[in-house]
Amino acid sequence: MFEFLKRNQLIKRGLASGKTRRRHLPNEMAQQLEYAKYVKVLIFAAFVAGLAALIFSGDQPEPTKNFVVALLFFGAAVIQLWINQPRTFVRSSRVLLVFGVIFVQLAATKAVLAVAASGTIAFLTPTSAAVVAPYAFAPLVLSVLLGRNHGLYAAIFIGLWTRLLFGDFDGPLLAMAVISGFVAVYLTLQVRKRSRLIRAGFGVGLTVWVLSLAFGLIGPIDLFTPGDNDWRLLAVQSALAFGNGILTATIVGGILPMIEHPFRITTDISWLELSDLNHPLLRRMTIEAPGTYHHSLVVANLAEAAAESIGANGTLCRVCAYFHDVGKLVKPDYFTENMNYERNPHDDLAPSMSALIILAHVKEGVDLALKHDLNRRIIDIIQEHHGTSLVYYFYKRALQQQEDARAGGKIMNMREEDVPEVKEESFRYAGPKPQTKESAIISLADMVESASRSLEKPTPQKIEQLVTDLIAQRVADKQLDECDLTLAELNTIAERFRFTLMTMLHTRIAYPKHDTKTVGTRDPSMRPDVMAVTRKPETAPPVSAA
pTM for the whole thing? Predict the structure, then answer.
């Protein structure tokens, strides 16, 4: 309270700025809950209680036996998640998402069984309920949100638990649940459009229909006397099988945005929506900082190509690269790509002040990103794309000025303590260092693209040497210590950078100047050129030598 009043007094006297920069600070309580063991225990206990409620409800035979088997399956599921997906297991929100989605599917299956047992819908019998059960719901959701391994995990254990809910069914039901889940995961390996979900739903529906025919869940069908078949019933059952997959995929496509925000997950579909270059910040950049805008586009191309070469998320890299330097909008003229060649504003500033302006663009970028409610991954990469690296140019300039001051001080008999001190920490970014592969790739792409602009007459050898040296410098400066990039992946990234830069910085041949002589001065003895233009139209566009 007193700090607030004191700040207001300073602002009124003109001794402080009225602007408050937004800060991206992690919520300590949320972080503690995210990694607390007792939270996972509560999630597991709630899931077991839900399983008990599903199994013991209704007129299911031998519910106690089925519940014991379900507990054994649950133990196997927890151990499997702990061994194969340790990053998911350690986070309470991910555990809640996995088991929450699985329970929703099991509850929906139980509801289908209850409706079939009640007889309220004529064509929905206990046998046809196996055709209508939403086998692909959890595999689809988890495959799109967390990856195919999570989708396969859900398909296997949901098949086992669904078998216990049906009770009377045996192998055919288990096979249908598992195979349908596998088909759903296979068809959602790269979902960049919502229409791919519908295609996956159609594939699941076709799988359910084929397996239902094979296991006799649709029919009966008499192949020898087709006239005796109940074609109306067969048509209804086939429609239910196909509609099962398509309706499930449609529901998944609708609820994905509602799941992404609370669990802080962004799918490729959402990243593509965020890649719209008409965002207000990007439109401002085209006008106020066109050099930074072009730089961001080139970094996006470099980062996306490098990410895809090592299996990282290329779409995420492209979108985050668009916004990584958005903080330069605050003072665009102080950055090389936007400078007026007639004047360098840093010539009038001390190196420490110049470095302060350069360093501040990260904090200003976070401020603008929070103001425009950008995705959290974008904000993280804005903070991390320079890590704790050194603003080398102004640091060396400050050291040179310090040496000059010392040399002059000896002549003027100045004391050593009167010479301004240069601290390396004052010329380093605040960090943190890149925490993910995508963040590290954007950091490297940003550095490589900026340095490549200084190459005179770029050749493949110069580009290769530049990329190799810059990446080696980042490794030596320990800027990549906190991300999980391997040396093999760094070599692949460097190779992709070299290839992309060579295609962008290629040279062109020198075109000869146009002959300004008119056609009328041509030697009359030469054969006339029927394709020659005797007069250039006034509205004709200029000739391009592209």
Answer: 0.81
